[in-house]
Specification:
Helix content: 40-55%
Distance between the termini: 9 Å
Largest sheet: 6 strands, parallel
Number of helices: 15
Radius of gyration: 21 Å
Number of strands: 11
Order of helices and strands: EHEHHHHEEHEHEHEHEHHEHEHHEH
Strand content: 5-15%
């Protein structure tokens, strides 16, 4: 069966790339022909407003201020993403980039797919998606195909669709053969707002095992990591930094990161123009190797938490409500690991040595891995 996957754009998000890789591998190993329909929404309103702001600052106050969160040009982006682009080219089957609804329609015809699988990585969150109806397969309404949502994620337990989006997407959702979601809260959202019954399944990355990822690391001959306390923090601040240093000192560990020196959220135009090498993302397998080598992890990322669990590393996850807290609580509740979730405003008096019963966690994980995989593959048999 030929399957087209719909997910977030293939760019420099480690978790996003690996969930797509894992889903493809699961389907390929089941004997299917698979490719991801890649897309890019171009300049959204936020980016356009940012660029106007940058121009105004540099025109009115030349050389005095620098605005963070700079969006690079296409040429700059190719340099910044060269390592992640190499992973995409080597390990993910994908189409040319689609830029419009018409592009999705054209790809649907050219691809001649027998089925579509939509998911995961907040693909159903309006703020993260320039083509929300297309993530409900609006471009394939007239096609006789199987429609599967696998671990589709709203990212939050709040309904963020507009009334118009709700009406349109609810009609499209009812055409699906199977709807599964990544967060348990998504089951309720699907029922209440889309009028469909959904099932709760694991994130695609968890369909593969630790050994699968180690083989990937070894295939790339990835060198050993630089420390023992891996901290993967997407939204750094003074409280998180102090906490990491306190844990490192208390546990006698060496903190290290696998991120650009100039992170995407805080880099400035001057950073990109004057030291672009400091903006380059390390390789995907360097990021994976960090979990393999670490003795402990501290993260504020969903997939940082996921891979800490896959590699059985003692971890602490600092909740990130703006990016979607239900993503964390849903998985931690499933694995009885709620005590590993920390509030950024209450990082004192944590028992750093608190153990995790990995035998119990792995039993639960293996059970849900088998059920999630069987559910997906049975609907594609």
């Amino acid at each position: 069966m030929k399957i087209g996957i719909l997910t977030q754009p293939l760019q420099s998000n480690y978790g996003g790339l690996l969930q797509n890789y894992a889903l493809q591998q699961t389907l390929i190993r089941a004997g299917h022909e698979v490719e991801t329909i890649d897309w890019y929404g171009g300049k959204n309103l936020r980016e356009k407003l940012y660029r106007l702001k940058v121009k105004a600052v540099h025109l009115l106050l030349p050389g005095k201020y620098s605005v963070s969160g700079y969006w690079p040009t296409a040429e700059e982006r190719s340099i910044i993403q060269r390592n992640t682009n190499r992973f995409i080219k080597s390990y993910i089957n994908h189409t040319e980039v689609v830029h419009s609804y018409k592009g999705f329609v054209k790809q649907s015809s050219n691809g001649a797919y027998d089925a579509y699988v939509v998911g995961s990585d907040q693909c159903w969150r309006p703020a993260y998606n320039a083509f929300l109806p297309s993530m409900f397969l609006d471009f394939a309404q007239d096609k006789q195909v199987r429609r599967i949502a696998y671990a589709a994620s709203f990212g939050t337990d709040k309904w963020e669709f507009t009334p118009k989006q709700t009406t349109l997407c609810a009609a499209l959702a009812k055409m699906f053969d199977l709807v599964t979601v990544r967060e348990d809260s998504g089951v309720k959202l699907c029922k209440e707002y889309l009028g469909v019954d959904a099932l709760h399944v694991l994130d695609p990355t968890m369909l593969l095992t630790k050994d699968d990822y180690i083989q990937l690391i070894e295939a790339e001959k990835e060198p050993h990591s630089a420390g023992t306390l891996f901290n993967y923090i997407l939204d750094p601040n003074a409280k998180k930094s102090a906490f990491i240093q306190r844990v490192a000192k208390a546990q006698g560990k060496i903190p290290f990161q696998v991120l650009p020196k100039c992170q995407a959220e805080t880099r400035t135009r001057e950073d990109v123009k004057n030291r672009i090498e400091d903006c380059v993302f390390p390789s995907v397998t360097a990021w994976l190797r960090a979990f393999m080598d670490a003795e402990m992890t501290i993260v504020d990322s969903f997939h940082g938490m996921v891979f800490s669990i896959i590699f059985n590393k003692p971890f602490w996850v600092i909740g990130n409500e703006e990016r979607g807290l239900s993503r964390f609580t849903s998985l931690l509740r499933l694995l009885n690991l709620e005590d590993r979730l920390l509030d950024v405003n209450h990082l004192d008096d944590i028992d750093f040595s608190s153990p995790i019963d990995w035998s119990r966690v792995n039993r639960i994980l293996e059970d849900h891995r088998g059920k999630s995989k069987a559910l997906l593959l049975n609907y594609l048999a």
